What does this fold into?
Amino acid sequence: MPKKAETAVIAGAGPAGLTAALELLRHTDIRPIVLEADSVVGGISRTVEYNGNRMDIGGHRFFSKSQEVLDRWMELMPLQGAPAQDEKLLGENFGQFAPGGPDPDSEDRVMLRRRRVSRIYFLRKFFDYPISMKRSTFANMGFRRVLKAGCGYLWSCVHKLPEDSLENFYINRFGRPLYEMFFEAYTEKVWGVHPSSLGADWGSQRVKGLSVRAVLKDMLAKASGRKNGSSRVETSLIEEFIYPKFGPGQLWQTVADEIRAAGGEVRLDSEVIGVHCSGGKVTEVEVRAKDGGICTVGCDWFLSTMPLKDLVPRMKGVELPPKVLETATALPYRDFITVGLCVDKLKIRNETALKTWEGRIPDTWIYIQDRDVKLGRLQVFNNWSPYLVKDYRNSVWLGLEYFCTEGDEMWTMSDAEFIAMAEAELVKTGIIEEGSVKDACRVKIRKAYPAYFGSYYELDCVKDFLNGIPNLFCLGRNGQHRYNNMDHSMLTAIECVRAIASGHPENKTAVWNVNTEEEYHEEKHNN
It folds into this structure.
């Protein structure tokens, strides 16, 4: 009898789920079926379209220390030989754009090379992010703050705190005064709790190599004419990144198309509501369609990018230890709201040395540090890709980012109320003039950020239980309850398929070790 073809059911069509499906098709004989509860692919890496404008939810710089990931991006969407500077992309060569926007006849499936400018808006002034040692930084801070920050940093060099919280993690690298000015308020906006109550794990994963010393080292290297290879540069210090012409969702739609063309399935509006086990393995999943209809899909492998909070209580046919169920269902998350505002112009103007179209600011995103507004971060979509904006020449397309918890006051506000609040905050900060908004929309994202407090510290019992099911793999940001970047999520999928193809699926160590090992952060991908 010929061997029965195997099937892998994959819960979630985000970066991890779609990467896993494509890897299975390329390296195994296993047929993937991707089940996505939403009506679009990409997860939080989707691109939202509204009245001809496109929004990148959360902002996704395509940059990685992993050559494997870079190779896959370039294979799917080749790099266009365009310069990073918008004045060259849109100035003399503006002919590549139609009068109202991008030229529909130009090559679409390409990556653009983009210039990274991220700054902090504090005291109604701009500061470099990460904080630089430029004259403008000292002038904006004022003599007293500079003196206090310098003394605080020197003290932190000789008096190290135990790194048992995110607060101490930051203080050890920047000193207390700089931490209080540039990290404390923003971090509390993001997580809804004070940094003293957050685990240092988040800092280890997101800003491990960032410190005053790293900033100084980077500045000295540039001043001397030396430039480290991008794989050795701390992620927060990179100056360029690549970016899909029409936003990150374009790449993930491309992957979904590749999967279907190769014989796999990507089913939208298909929510996994039950995971059935027999003999210690996952044998089928229960799926609910948008119209409420329910069906089951059999599987030989189950790859989950579902939030652990949802996965564990939906498992049937296997004994769930009470501690595992309690820990998983109590895992904390932060939810996310983006308000898209289309304005005719900004009140703030470009005062950097960079040339920009019509003197606009060059920032991709801006961290809003001021405590008197709820706004956490501001994206300028024109600077991510000109093709995200319907009328690039005559409008600025902004994304105002708010962090909240599902069910709280911000989450339950009506769209009209929330948009009015967002517009008023942007006027209050001096970024736009009152009455300059031409169009607006609001997008809510559930479980955008797995949080590092509460039952997170008991997560090992959940991980051990799930690892005991040999044909179940947990992938991606929510699948592992880890604040992974897009490339990290892809790597969990790559390592998963590598384990399956090797014939040793019981060894899931490499899957869980993505974005945790020092070797990955600094050395592994230097070639």
